[in-house]
Amino acid sequence: MLTLLMESAATTIFVTWQLLEAGKSSAGQWNADQLECLTGLRQPPSGWGRRTLGTRISRDKAIRFLMLTDAHRRKMDATQEGAMDSAPLLSRLH
To answer: Measured in whole angstroms, how far is the alpha carbon of residue 68 from the centre of its chain?
Structure first.
């Protein structure tokens, strides 16, 4: 879906279930940054998905929503890799 949006000439799109499903993380959820992107709230009330269906958002906002999918996991993976790389240095302190 991200590729389709990036190739689209449209400047706005409608929020669909397909967009929402495509934005779900590997754990089947959305992160706070994604929710804020669509609703303006980091913790929107229950039913936010149904309320956003059919609303018009900018193409850029839709792309951002999709690009934020699993962003927290990518950050965590990068941090863990950095921690693993520094392990030999830390072991010298003991």
So the answer is: 2
Interatomic CA distance for residues 27 and 39, integer angstroms:
21
Q: Is residue 15 a contact partner of residue 51, using CB atoms and an 8 Å limit?
A: no
DSSP single-letter state for residue 44: P
Three-state secondary structure call for residue 47 = coil
Return phi, psi of residue 15, to 5°. Answer: -70, 125
Alpha carbons 24 and 92: distance in angstroms, whole number: 42
> For 35, which DSSP code?
H
What global pTM score does this model have? 0.71
Per-residue confidence in pLDDT tens, the chain, 94 aa:
667 666 667 789 999 999 999 999 989 999 999 999 999 999 999 999 999 999 999 999 999 999 999 986 665 555 555 544 434 433 333 3
Asked whether 32 and 43 are in contact (CB, 8 A), the reply is yes
